[in-house]
Design brief:
- This protein is an alpha+beta fold.
- It has a single domain, classed as HPr-like (Histidine-containing Protein, Chain: A).
- It has four helices and three strands; from the N terminus they run αββαβαα.
- It is globular and about 30 Å long.
- It starts with 8 loop residues before the first helix and ends with a helix.
- About 20% of the residues are buried.
Protein backbone atom coordinates (compact mmCIF):
# COMPACT_ATOMS: atom_id res chain seq x y z
CA UNK A 1 0.00 0.00 0.00
CA UNK A 2 1.64 3.19 -1.24
CA UNK A 3 -0.74 5.71 0.34
CA UNK A 4 0.86 7.30 3.41
CA UNK A 5 -2.37 6.89 5.40
CA UNK A 6 -3.23 3.43 4.13
CA UNK A 7 -6.47 2.32 2.56
CA UNK A 8 -8.88 4.34 4.72
CA UNK A 9 -12.38 5.53 3.79
CA UNK A 10 -11.54 8.15 1.13
CA UNK A 11 -9.23 6.00 -1.01
CA UNK A 12 -11.51 2.99 -0.44
CA UNK A 13 -14.39 5.04 -1.82
CA UNK A 14 -12.28 6.09 -4.80
CA UNK A 15 -11.31 2.45 -5.31
CA UNK A 16 -14.94 1.31 -5.33
CA UNK A 17 -15.84 4.09 -7.77
CA UNK A 18 -13.11 2.83 -10.08
CA UNK A 19 -13.85 -0.89 -9.75
CA UNK A 20 -17.56 -0.29 -10.33
CA UNK A 21 -16.77 0.92 -13.84
CA UNK A 22 -15.75 -2.59 -14.89
CA UNK A 23 -17.87 -5.66 -15.59
CA UNK A 24 -15.27 -8.13 -14.30
CA UNK A 25 -15.04 -9.56 -10.79
CA UNK A 26 -12.31 -7.85 -8.77
CA UNK A 27 -10.75 -9.10 -5.56
CA UNK A 28 -8.24 -7.47 -3.25
CA UNK A 29 -6.15 -9.93 -1.28
CA UNK A 30 -4.19 -9.41 1.93
CA UNK A 31 -2.43 -12.31 3.65
CA UNK A 32 -4.57 -14.84 1.78
CA UNK A 33 -7.87 -13.11 2.63
CA UNK A 34 -9.72 -12.05 -0.52
CA UNK A 35 -12.46 -9.43 -0.44
CA UNK A 36 -14.80 -8.00 -3.06
CA UNK A 37 -13.09 -5.02 -4.69
CA UNK A 38 -16.47 -3.42 -5.35
CA UNK A 39 -17.52 -3.32 -1.68
CA UNK A 40 -16.28 -0.45 0.46
CA UNK A 41 -17.06 -2.32 3.69
CA UNK A 42 -15.15 -5.38 2.54
CA UNK A 43 -12.16 -3.25 1.54
CA UNK A 44 -12.10 -1.44 4.89
CA UNK A 45 -12.04 -4.78 6.75
CA UNK A 46 -8.60 -5.44 5.25
CA UNK A 47 -7.03 -2.87 7.58
CA UNK A 48 -4.49 -2.04 4.89
CA UNK A 49 -2.07 0.47 6.35
CA UNK A 50 0.95 1.87 4.52
CA UNK A 51 3.50 -0.76 3.54
CA UNK A 52 1.03 -3.67 3.48
CA UNK A 53 1.28 -5.95 0.45
CA UNK A 54 -2.01 -6.26 -1.43
CA UNK A 55 -2.71 -8.43 -4.45
CA UNK A 56 -5.29 -7.50 -7.06
CA UNK A 57 -7.12 -10.22 -8.97
CA UNK A 58 -9.65 -9.65 -11.72
CA UNK A 59 -11.54 -12.16 -13.84
CA UNK A 60 -13.88 -11.45 -16.69
CA UNK A 61 -14.30 -9.55 -19.91
CA UNK A 62 -12.42 -6.34 -19.06
CA UNK A 63 -10.11 -7.71 -16.35
CA UNK A 64 -6.89 -6.50 -17.98
CA UNK A 65 -8.17 -2.94 -18.31
CA UNK A 66 -9.39 -2.96 -14.71
CA UNK A 67 -6.06 -4.19 -13.36
CA UNK A 68 -4.16 -1.58 -15.33
CA UNK A 69 -6.35 1.23 -13.98
CA UNK A 70 -6.14 -0.12 -10.42
CA UNK A 71 -2.36 -0.46 -10.49
CA UNK A 72 -2.10 3.14 -11.66
CA UNK A 73 -4.29 4.39 -8.80
CA UNK A 74 -2.41 2.37 -6.20
CA UNK A 75 0.92 3.69 -7.54
CA UNK A 76 -0.39 7.26 -7.24
CA UNK A 77 -1.53 6.67 -3.65
CA UNK A 78 -5.05 7.77 -4.64
CA UNK A 79 -3.83 11.37 -4.82
CA UNK A 80 -3.11 11.58 -1.11
CA UNK A 81 0.69 11.46 -1.08
CA UNK A 82 2.51 14.66 -0.17
CA UNK A 83 3.75 15.80 -3.59
CA UNK A 84 0.40 15.30 -5.28
CA UNK A 85 -1.48 16.98 -2.44
CA UNK A 86 0.81 20.03 -2.64
CA UNK A 87 0.38 20.13 -6.41
CA UNK A 88 -3.41 20.03 -6.06
CA UNK A 89 -3.32 22.82 -3.48
CA UNK A 90 -1.25 25.08 -5.71
CA UNK A 91 -3.57 24.46 -8.65
CA UNK A 92 -6.67 25.36 -6.65
CA UNK A 93 -5.03 28.36 -4.96
CA UNK A 94 -3.79 29.96 -8.18
Amino acid sequence: MNNSQGLHARPAHALVNLTSQYDCDIEIIRDGEAVDGKSILAILTLGAEQGIQLTLRATGRDADDALEALEEQFAKGFGENGDEAQEQESQTSG
